[in-house]
Amino acid sequence: MCLAYPMKIIEIKGTHASVEAEGIKRDVNIEFLKNAQKGDFVMVHAGFAIEKFDSSKVKDILDGFKEYKSAYRKSSKK
Amino acid sequence: MLTENLLRNKKVIRRIIRAIQSLGLKKKINIMEVCGTHTYTFFRFGLKKLLPDNINLISGPGCPVCITEDSFIDKALFLCKDKQNIIATFGDLIKVKGTVSSLEEAHAYGANISVIYSPSEVLELAKINPQKRIIFLAVGFETTAPLTASILKEAQKNELNNLFVLSAHRVIPPALNLLCEDSEIKVDGFLCPGHVSVIIGEVPYREIVKKYNIPCVICGFEPLDMVLSIYKICSQISEGKYKLENEYNRVVKPGGNISAMKLINEVFDIKDAAWRGFGVIKKSGLFINERYKNFDAEKLIDKPLAHGKIKNINCRCVDVVKGKISPSECPQFKKRCTVDNPLGPCMVSFEGTCRIYYEYGA
Lengths: 78, 362
Prior knowledge:
Radius of gyration of chain B: 21 Å
Shape of chain B: globular
CATH topology of chain A: SH3 type barrels
Strand content of chain B: 15-25%
Radius of gyration of chain A: 18 Å
Distance between the termini of chain A: 46 Å
CATH class of chain A: Mainly Beta
CATH topology of the domain at 66-171 and 259-300 in chain B: Rossmann fold
CATH architecture of chain A: Roll
Structural class of chain A: alpha+beta
Helix content of chain A: 25-40%
Strand order of the largest sheet of chain B: 2-1-7-8-9
Strand content of chain A: 35-45%
Distance between the termini of chain B: 30 Å
Oligomer: heterodimer
């Protein structure tokens, strides 16, 4: 029930926006977002955008890779 | 999306699993995936089979339908007897039995029940049916509660006096506190629910880490998110230093969604509330407050309901939601209890542990 999907804003209409993902278009409420703009990716839960999706943070996952790489190297040397 | 290719990359996922193995943890590690959607991802992508044998995943209470008490369904069944009422509900809830029956059965006997995707549809139903009372069955955690709060605010603004909400909204952190204090359930770390965390942020988990000295990782819903979060929990256990980590920071902000939290606090009071399997948990339920009392469907129930007697069906959903047993330990699992004929809510919901185990052959 807490499912949410990333969708792209294609048009803003006041407190609502048209969003799209893989050809599916929906009208969603964006009242919980600050400064939502056309082109933003947002997480959509039951007809409401609950947060913006910050793709630049995916780099942080890559930092996680560094962590595992270092752990892996350490164990390989043992 | 580009990120999806990365977050489902088999090669990288296998590498991280090797890194978990390389930590050399020998003892059994019990990790609770709090959210039902995490359980779903584990099975859908076959991750459970890839993990080392000593990593034991326990499903937690993060399926709203599963922890909703029979008495809530009984109230909905009482309300749908009145032909003036239209019950609006998420689809998952209609197959769940109260003490005697389900909304699906009531619908077959003529009750007016409308399955909705979004709470926004409730506003439309109220506008186009001015002669009817629209009663929204509001279940869900912090992810969904602001949506209910939003429609109530809109209803008040537009003076919609035929819209009502029966709230079974619950908040997650008190249940995690209780799990940490339960000596029968030994949890070594929590995969914290990503979309609840979008709303509440990091602070409630920091308090849990501080109070119970247990690793917590806010986790996304892609396969890479999950193995990386498990790696982070195992690393913390390996080092003996426990903290909160936010693996899902592409969506979860440290302070959560402030405007959504503000709206929850504007519409609801937080009070002690009953959870299936847990009993009453202090300060865990969201109830419509004085300011919005005209929309509270509880006031339409003018007499105490005589609950039917629960049949002794040996359904052990109460133990499944608490992580005490896995579905395969329930005597009715895959026997009398199936997806087509569910005995308990964990077999009904798409996020229910029993249903996921059933559908993915676990």
